[in-house]
Every structure is written in C-alpha cells, then in structure tokens.
C-alpha cells in the first residue's frame, strides 16, 4: 500500500514535466545544429563592416557596390543552404539522452519507461516490474532540457570569425562617432557616410508678385525666414551623384509645399522649384543624409476685408448712387466692384467698377457713379461688394438693400417713355406690348406730334420692337438706349439740331474718357506709359472741344432768343482756367495711378457739362447781386489796407523817436570812449584787463561791460517840444483810426452777417497805443502798434475767407454761356473748382505785386512789416580795426613774456589759442 501511494504521488505530473523537458532539449539540439549556419553570414557582415570602416565600399560606384553586395549575399546563401542540407532533425532518443544528461540521470531511466518485461505470466513478476517502474519514476523528480552547447565547427568560416571580430572592434574604436554612418553606407549603396564632402547647396526664395522684395537667400547662417504664402523656393545642388529630395514637416495637416521635382542640370548637378504653402521645417536630403534644414514661417494670404460704409444708395432727389466702401488687405487691393441684383431676377447682375488709387492696402471712400441711365434707376436692389487682392484672393461683403439713383423728370411724356422703358428692360412686359404702348403714345396729342424728329425716333423704336429679325436681348438693349435719349430730348424740349448734336458729342467724349481710364486701370503699371497718356490727352482735348461746341450752340440760341449775357472777361477767363485745371489734374491723377481721383474729376466735369444751359431772369438777377457783392468786398478790403498803411506810419514815427534816443546814447558812449583812448593811448602801460576791455572782452572774474561800438549816423535832432507835439498828433491819428476800424467792422457785419475776432482785438491794442503815446512811452507804443498791425493782417485773412465762402455759396451751379464781341459763346462759371473769380482776386494781385519787393535775393519773404530785419548792425571802420590789431599784438607780446604771473599767462594762452 505504501508503494502504491508513492507511485501515485510521483507519477501524477510526470508526463507534463517530461514533455517540457523534452521540448527544451529539442530546442537546444536545434540551436546547436543551426548556429553554424549563421557563421558565413556573420563573417561576411563583419567583413563588409570592416571594409566600410575603411571607406572602401563607399569609393565604389553605386552599381559596383550593389553588385558586390549581391555577390556576397549569394555566396552566403549558397553556403548556408549547403550547410542546411547536412542538418538532421533531433530524434526522440537524442532528445531523451539530452534530458538525461541535463538532469544528471544515470542508467538511462527514460528508456525504462518504454521497456516491457519479457515474461509477465506470474503475478510475482508483474508486481516486481511495477515496483521497478515506481522506483524509476520516483527518481525523475527534477527533469531539465539543458542549454545549447555551441561548439565551433572545424571550417574556414569558423577560423575567420574571431579575427574579423577583433579587427571590427579595433575599427570601431578607431573611427569613433563616424563608425555608424560608415557601416550603414557600406551596406546601403547610394548612401554617403558622414565623412563624404557635402555637395554645394544654393537655395533662395523668390517673393510673389503681390509682395515684391529682394530674394531671401538660405544658408547655414540664415536657417530661418519669414515669407508670404505663394513664395517660390529654388534649390540648386552641385556635387551630388544621387537625386535629392525635399521634405517639409508642416505644423498643420495641410500640405506645406507644392508639387516639385528635381531636374538634372548636368553631371552631379540638380535643380528644383517648389511653392511654399504653409509654415514648417524644410529638409533637403540626398544619398541618405540631410544636406540642409531651414525653419520657414509662411505668413498667410488672407482674403480682403470688405464692407459697406454708411448710407449707401441714393437719397431723395439724388441722381447719383452713393457706394461707400471699406476694404483692406495686407498686400493691396487690385480691384473692387459692386454687384447689383434685382430681387425678382437673380440672374441679371449689374457690375459697377469702383476705382481705387493704385493698389492700396486700406481704402475708405465713396464712389458716386451715374447709374441714372440704367433701366434699374429708382429701383431697390440687392448689392454686395466684391474685392480682389493683389495676391489673388477674393472676398464678398454682406448683401444690403439700396436704391439706385434716378434723374428727376417733370415732363409727363418723358415719364411715360421711361415707364415703358423700365417695364420692357425688367421683362415685366414683352416686346409687342411695349411697341403697342409706344404707338399709342405717338398717336396722342403731345409734344411728340409737334416735333417730327421726336416722333420719328418714337416710331422707329416701336418698329424695332415689333420686328422679329433680331433677338430679344439685342432688341431690348438697343430699344432701351433709344428711349433714354428720347426721354432726355422731351424733358429738355430740345428743338435745335445743333444743341442736340452738341449734347451727343459731349456724352460721347465723356464716355471715351471713361473707357480710357478703365483701360488704363486694367493695364496696371503699363497703363501709365507714354502711349496711353497721349491717348488720354487726345480724348480729353476732344471732350474740351465738345464742351466748347455746346457752349457756342447755346450762345447762338441765346442770341436768337434775346437772352444772351454779355461776356465778362474776368468771369469767362476764370471758367476756362477752371476747366483746364480740372482736365490737367485728371491727366495727372491718371498718370500717377490715382484712378479714384481721376474718376472723381471726370464726374465733376460731367456734372458741370450737365449744368450748361442758357440764363434765366433769375440767373441774371443773381449775377447782378454777385457783381454788387464783389464790388462791396473790394471796397472793404481796400479800406482795411488803408488802415494798415496808416498804422504802419504811426509805427514808423514811434520807431524814429526810439532810434533818435538810441543814437543819442551811442554818441555819449563814443565820446567817453574817445576820452579814454586819449588818456590811455600807451598800450604798453595798460593792464591786461584794460586791453581786453578795449577789445570788448570781459576779462576772467570781471563784470565790466564792453566798450560800446560806434553806431550809424544819427537822424536829424528833434527838440523835446517837437517830440511831444508829434506824440500828441499820433495819439489823435490813432483815435481816428480806431473809429474808422469800428465803422469798417459795422459795414462788414451788415454785408456778411458775422464778426471778425481779430479786428476786435485790434481795437483793444489801439487803446494801449493811445495810452502809451499819452504817457510819452515810445517803446510801449511801438510794441502795441506792432500788435495792432498783426491783428489787422489776421483780420484781412479772416475777411478773405468769409468773402470766399460767401461767394461760393452764392455762385450759380451751372455754366451760363456768355456771348463775346465776336459772337462766340463762352462759359461764365462752372460747377467744379473755383467757379467764379473770388471777390478779392484783384486785390490779391496788387498785394502780390507789392510783396515782390519784400523778398530776399533768393525769393524768400523777409517779413510783412520788416520787423525781422537787422538795421542796427555796425561795421567797424579802419581806425577801429587798426587799434584792435595793435591790442592783439600787445597781448601776444605779454603772452611771450614768461616773467609775468602764471595765472595771467595761462589765461592769455587760452585766449589766443583759437587765433
């Protein structure tokens, strides 16, 4: 029973332990048999690595290098396969023997487990065999498979391996940190190690057209750069056998570099270009190495910021459409236009270009195009702004509702024609309906039936709409244009063929100028060349001639109707000058790329041309009032100039008395100086302090004043009685001037309805002048008189500004043809610029003529009252210069005398050193 219990205990887990031991033994046997297969590959690898440390494979051409590696690999594979053919799998017996050896079991107990007794016929023999098995299994407590026993086989591979290993270890120590790159380059054909000379790399970034600037060069010292999106990277390499590659690691998921490919320029020379799209780290790789690396910050190219300004559209009675805008973009705005869409016809879009001055980065302005001739005039539309930047991005503003400006028509027939025109253009009625309405309008008893030309224009348009020979789009376009001009003729009651032709000529010339400006804007910088400028000048001259013809036609009509205004040279000449200046400014703006300013000038000229008409009785009355106001303003300014002249005379009197006192003091000082020179004529006997005082120099530590210099010849002497009498007379004159100034203020207040603060201040300063003259204080009187003159001059400027603003408010806003002696019509004033001559132009010309003498030789002003002129400068005479020279020689003699006190010598050295 005891034996049975042991057998159960020891044999319960024996199969599992035995299976594990046998598996371990089998793996060990396989390792012992397979590891020799690794020796050829290991020896070959160590040999190649050793050659790589010596940089032998790297010197071979890539193709030879690759073939050599393939040959070595083939030889190793063939040898390994041959060795594999001689390897047999471990048997069960070999496995058990390895387990027995590893477990230290003697007598091959594992074989006993598989044996069978020769005779088991008797129970005693069977029990004895079982007892033997139990004892054998009890001995198998610790079964192990053992570790592989790696033995070097006797072959050439085995003999070479240790030698190669020792050499490889020495090579690793010898090459140091470059060992890894050399070994890697030995096993990878087409890859350079760290010791291979780097190729010459030239890289630069060309900025895009919208952000002009110098190219940005990249090298080892300039590894970072900030460039705008769309810049082009150019790379050239010299001395690289393999094809390089560009890799850019972007900070975002979007691609950072555009498509690119390297092109061979020659042997070992490459070139490529790539567009930079986003920021990141750019690496240039070639033959397994990073040849260059740069950190690039690409600034984005945002779309423009475009929005509407305040109060878009047209107000009540306005026929121009206000299109205020705000647009901004870092690289400049190339174009801006407004898209107008009718609510019931989204497919019809009216695009209105908005001119800009050049390509500004930020622009705020208001465009006022004339859209009154469009059939949509007077309708509410949906509008949006579309801006395109110089860098190619586009943005659209939020849509708004606005009303297109329309001209005011008062003639009911013209209104009816425009109503038919609008319905036809907006497809609210078809061609046949519009034709029938036009025919019915022509049959009614209206102004059309009394004017054959207008009736023919109406019937021809109706026939065009009724014809089926043309398409609907072409017919409607032509019919709307005809009906617009027909409505204008009816509204203005044009019956003169010359006037009609002149109007058409002006409109055609204006449209030609507009088209040329648009053409120059679209051409960009090329639009400012000489040819385009010459074409613009030619069209501007045609516009000027057309306006002149219109003026002549209206002048002849006025003569026939006995409503002509006689020509006034100062007004007609001013109107012609304004028109010429406006045209010249338009050409200058166009030449400078200021398209917005040029278009604004053209719009002003269009408004001026639209306002050309013959004079009415109201115009004649207004002209008379203007002429009267001009005359009154001229008299007021003449009186003010007379006040300035008389006040200047009072200042001259006071200054003369002050000069007389000064000359008297100068004579007394000169007399004292002469007495001192006679008493101290011997320079050698004078002290150094006295010599310096003779030169006008205050000695060190002395506060004595310098000797006065001789002044200019004194004025004629004036007795104290005459002096007092003149002061009293000047005081009386000053009182009279104050009263005259008060009267002038009253007249100006009545004429202009406002006061002038400068003249009020002049009244206060005049009181100070009278007080100073009464006390006999000429210096205080002169200072107060200068203040009075300054106040009067300021009042003169205020008067000019008030009269100019009053004149501009009262100017007729149209051009009135005036008939000259030769019967030709000339324009009296225009709607742009300074329309009529200012009421003070004549006085200004006289003032400018008087100021010509108040300038220095270089043409600069020397002061209105000559207050800044230095009239008391004294030039020494020959005697004074000779005496100063003698004093200088005496000082030099004393400076050369070393026996004098050290303090005096030191002072003389410092005094004479600059000379």
UniProtKB/TrEMBL annotation:
Bias-annotated ranges (Basic and acidic residues): 654-670, 869-903
Signal sequence, renumbered to the chain: none
Bias (Low complexity) ranges: 698-709
Pfam hit, one: DUF4175
Transmembrane intervals: 34-54
Keyword entries, A-Z: Coiled coil, Membrane, Transmembrane, Transmembrane helix
Location of the region described as Disordered in the Swiss-Prot/TrEMBL record: 651-684, 698-731, 818-903
Coiled-coil regions listed in the entry: 595-646
InterPro entries xrefs: CHP02302_TM
Protein name: DUF4175 domain-containing protein
Biological source species: Komagataeibacter xylinus
């Amino acid at each position: 029973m005891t034996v049975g219990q042991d057998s159960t205990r020891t044999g319960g887990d024996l199969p599992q332990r035995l299976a594990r031991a046998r598996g371990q033994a089998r793996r060990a046997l396989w390792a012992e048999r397979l590891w020799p297969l690794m020796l050829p590959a290991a020896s070959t690898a160590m040999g190649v690595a050793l050659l790589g440390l010596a940089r032998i494979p790297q010197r071979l051409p890539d193709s030879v290098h690759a073939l050599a590696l393939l040959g070595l690999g083939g030889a190793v594979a063939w040898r390994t396969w041959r060795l594999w053919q001689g390897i047999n799998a471990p048997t069960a017996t070999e496995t058990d023997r390895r387990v027995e050896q590893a477990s230290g079991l003697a007598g091959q107990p594992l074989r006993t487990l598989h044996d069978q007794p020769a005779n088991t016929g008797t129970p005693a023999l069977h029990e004895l065999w079982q007892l033997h098995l139990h004892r054998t299994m009890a001995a198998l407590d610790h079964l192990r498979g053992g570790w592989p026993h790696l033995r070097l086989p006797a072959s050439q591979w085995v003999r070479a391996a240790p030698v190669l290993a020792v050499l490889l270890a020495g090579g690793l120590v010898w090459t140091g940190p470059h060992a890894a790159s050399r070994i890697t380059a030995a096993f990878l054909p087409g890859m350079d190690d760290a010791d291979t000379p780097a190729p010459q790399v030239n890289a630069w970034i060309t900025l895009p057209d919208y952000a002009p600037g110098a190219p940005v060069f990249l090298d080892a010292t300039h590894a970072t750069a900030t460039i705008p999106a769309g810049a082009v990277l150019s790379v050239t390499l010299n001395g690289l056998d393999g094809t390089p590659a560009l890799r850019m690691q972007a900070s975002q998921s979007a691609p950072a570099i555009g498509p690119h490919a390297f092109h061979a320029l020659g042997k070992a020379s490459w070139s490529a270009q790539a567009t930079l799209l986003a920021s990141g780290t750019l690496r240039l790789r070639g033959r397994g190495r990073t040849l260059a690396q740069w950190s690039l910050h690409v600034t984005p190219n945002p779309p423009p910021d475009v929005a509407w300004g305040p109060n878009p559209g047209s107000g009540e009675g306005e026929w121009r459409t206000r299109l205020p805008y705000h647009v901004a973009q870092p690289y400049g705005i190339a174009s801006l236009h407004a898209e107008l869409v009718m609510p019931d016809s989204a497919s019809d879009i009216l695009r209105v270009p908005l001119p800009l001055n050049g390509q500004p980065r930020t622009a705020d302005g208001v465009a006022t195009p004339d859209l009154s001739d469009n059939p949509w005039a007077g309708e509410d539309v949906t509008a949006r702004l579309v801006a395109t930047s110089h860098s190619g991005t586009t943005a659209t503003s939020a849509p708004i509702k606005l009303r297109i400006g329309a001209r005011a028509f008062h003639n009911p027939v013209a209104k009816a024609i425009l109503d038919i025109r609008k319905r036809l253009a907006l497809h609210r009625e078809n061609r046949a309906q519009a034709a029938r309405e036009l025919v019915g309008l022509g049959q009614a008893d209206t102004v059309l039936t009394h004017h054959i030309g207008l009736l023919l224009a109406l019937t021809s348009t109706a026939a065009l709409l009724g014809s089926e020979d043309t398409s609907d789009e072409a017919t409607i376009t032509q019919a709307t244009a005809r009906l617009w001009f027909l409505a204008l003729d009816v509204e203005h009651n044009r019956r003169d063929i010359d006037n009609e032709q002149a109007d058409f000529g002006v409109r055609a010339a204006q449209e030609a100028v507009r088209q040329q400006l648009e053409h120059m804007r679209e051409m960009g910088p090329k639009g400012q060349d000489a040819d385009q400028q010459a074409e613009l000048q030619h069209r501007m001259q045609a516009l000027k001639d057309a306006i002149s013809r219109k003026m002549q036609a209206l002048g002849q009509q006025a003569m026939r109707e006995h409503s002509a205004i006689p020509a006034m040279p100062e007004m007609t000449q001013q109107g012609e000058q304004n028109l010429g200046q406006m045209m010249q400014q338009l050409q200058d703006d166009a030449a400078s790329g200021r398209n917005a300013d040029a278009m604004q000038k053209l719009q002003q000229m269009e408004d001026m041309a639209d306002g050309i008409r013959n004079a009415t009785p109201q115009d004649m009355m207004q002209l008379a009032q203007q002429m009267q106001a001009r005359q009154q303003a001229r008299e007021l300014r003449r009186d003010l100039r007379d006040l300035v002249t008389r006040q200047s005379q009072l200042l001259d009197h006071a200054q003369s008395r002050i000069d007389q006192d000064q000359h008297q003091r100068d004579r007394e000082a000169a007399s004292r100086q002469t007495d001192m020179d006679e008493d101290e004529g011997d320079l050698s006997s004078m002290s150094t302090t006295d010599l310096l005082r003779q030169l006008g120099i205050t000695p060190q530590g002395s506060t004595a004043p310098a000797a006065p210099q001789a002044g200019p010849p004194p004025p004629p002497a004036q007795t104290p009685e005459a002096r007092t009498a003149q002061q009293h007379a000047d005081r009386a004159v000053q009182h009279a001037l104050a009263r005259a100034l008060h009267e002038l203020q009253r007249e100006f207040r009545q004429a202009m309805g406002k006061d002038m603060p400068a003249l009020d201040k002049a009244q206060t300063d005049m009181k100070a002048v009278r007080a100073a003259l009464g006390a006999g204080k000429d210096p205080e009187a002169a200072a107060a008189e200068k203040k009075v003159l300054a106040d009067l001059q300021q009042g003169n400027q205020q008067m000019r500004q008030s009269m100019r603003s009053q004149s501009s408010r009262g100017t007729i806003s149209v051009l009135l043809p005036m008939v000259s002696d030769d019967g030709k019509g000339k324009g009296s004033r225009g709607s742009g610029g300074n329309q009529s001559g200012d009421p003070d132009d004549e006085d200004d010309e006289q003032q400018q003529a008087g100021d010509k003498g108040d300038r220095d030789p270089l043409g600069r002003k020397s002061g209105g009252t000559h207050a800044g002129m230095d009239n008391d400068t004294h030039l020494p005479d020959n005697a004074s210069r000779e005496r100063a020279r003698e004093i200088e020689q005496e000082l030099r003699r004393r400076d050369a005398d070393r026996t004098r006190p050290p303090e005096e010598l030191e002072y003389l050295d410092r005094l004479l050193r600059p000379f």
